[in-house]
């Protein structure tokens, strides 16, 4: 009975890990357009370092003060996730003053409409560490190869036990 409970808990934990990693790799599974791993503590405690933020593509005109946005200074460069503290609109442009929650000062440069990736819909703490680990050779072995091997071994053991019981019953 306890063994079945342990197996069920292990299977559930593996399912959760796989689901989170899949959502990170394919953010549309989670209802977002993009996902990014937070590399610094500038948004703590709201978004801790190592969190994965799920970002929705939102028109710049719809972004308001208080929204947490992800932006990239140069097209495909590294992204930053900070809170909008001020919005400036003119007839032809929108720009934002941003600040990390843990930072004392606002960011030195405004964020222009073209640099905005989107608005953070939600975040999952510390999953970025798991994703980074999963992308290593050791992570692949620990998170994929080892569980699959253990599962196959467990199933083979159950088949062997069933076969020996069946052989004993026919004697």
Secondary-structure topology with pairs:
Blueprint: H1 2-25, E1 34-37, E2 52-56, E3 68-72, E4 79-89, E5 94-99, E6 111-112, E7 116-124, H2 127-134, H3 137-170
Antiparallel strand pairs: 1-2, 2-7, 3-4, 3-7, 4-5, 5-6
Q: How would you portray this structure in words?
A:
With 171 residues, the chain is an alpha+beta fold. The chain has a domain at 31-127: Umud Fragment, subunit A (Ribbon), CATH 2.10.109. Helix content is 39%, strand content 25%. The chain has three helices and seven strands. A seven-stranded antiparallel beta sheet has the order 1-2-7-3-4-5-6. A hairpin with a 6-residue loop joins strand 3 (68-72) and strand 4 (79-89). The protein is elongated. It starts with a helix and ends with a helix. The model has no long low-confidence stretch (mean pLDDT 89).
The level-1 CATH class of the domain at 31-127: Mainly Beta
The number of helices is 3
Helix share, percent: 25-40%
- What structural category do the secondary elements indicate? alpha+beta
Average predicted local confidence, pLDDT: 89
Architecture per CATH nomenclature, i.e. the level-2 architecture of the domain at 31-127: Ribbon
N-to-C SSE string, H for helix and E for strand: HEEEEEEEHH
Q: How much of the residues is beta strand, in percent?
A: 15-25%
Note poorly predicted spans: none
Distance between the termini: 29 Å
Output the CATH topology of the domain at 31-127.
Answer: Umud Fragment, subunit A
Strand order of the largest sheet: 1-2-7-3-4-5-6
Question: Sheet with the most strands?
Answer: 7 strands, antiparallel
What spatial form do the alpha-carbon principal axes imply? elongated
CATH superfamily of the domain at 31-127: Umud Fragment, subunit A
Tally of strands: 7
Instruction: Give the radius of gyration.
Output: 23 Å
């Amino acid at each position: 009975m306890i063994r079945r409970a342990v197996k069920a808990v292990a299977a559930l934990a593996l399912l959760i890990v796989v689901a989170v990693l899949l959502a990170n790799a394919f953010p549309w599974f989670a209802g977002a357009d993009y996902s990014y791993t937070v590399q610094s503590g500038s948004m703590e405690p709201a978004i801790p370092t190592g969190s994965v933020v799920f970002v929705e593509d939102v028109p710049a005109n719809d972004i308001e003060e208080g929204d947490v946005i992800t932006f990239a200074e140069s097209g495909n460069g590294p992204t930053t996730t900070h809170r909008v503290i001020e919005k400036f609109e003119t007839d032809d442009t929108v720009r934002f003053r941003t600040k990390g929650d843990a930072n004392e000062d606002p960011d030195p440069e405004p964020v222009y409409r073209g640099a905005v990736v989107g608005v953070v819909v939600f975040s999952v703490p510390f999953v970025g560490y798991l994703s980074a680990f999963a992308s290593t050779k050791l992570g692949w072995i620990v998170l994929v190869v080892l569980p699959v091997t253990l599962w196959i071994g467990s199933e083979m053991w159950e088949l062997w036990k069933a076969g020996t019981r069946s052989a004993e019953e026919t004697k």
